[in-house]
Amino acid sequence: MARILGVDLPRNKAMSVALRSIYGVGPTVSVEVLTKAGIELTKNSNDISEDEIRAIRTALEDYTVEGDLRREVGLNIKRLKDLNCYRGTRHKKGLPVRGQRTHTNARTRKGKAVAIAGKKSIKSMK
Length: 126
Description:
single chain, CATH 4.10.910.10, 2 domains
């Protein structure tokens, strides 16, 4: 099993797909890294040698990935929260940040819907 930047690559997958398990490496970056390292895109992750792993590691040094990228993203969100700007307050409240509607949907950000206690009794009084 190949281990790159503290991440175990999935077994029995094409290298262009297996590299995507690293945070910050998507389809485009994985293809660029493999071409720089001189490795076939369709080569299986089980068949990769130590020299090829070393070549991938050196090719990935040009990109901000894994811990550095997570830290950078976290600091950007913290900066928005400290500024108390609109996006920062949305992050604090756990609501959608990019202008999505919240009247309906937004369950992923808002969490499970909570029933309002006593709502039926108010309607019956009218």
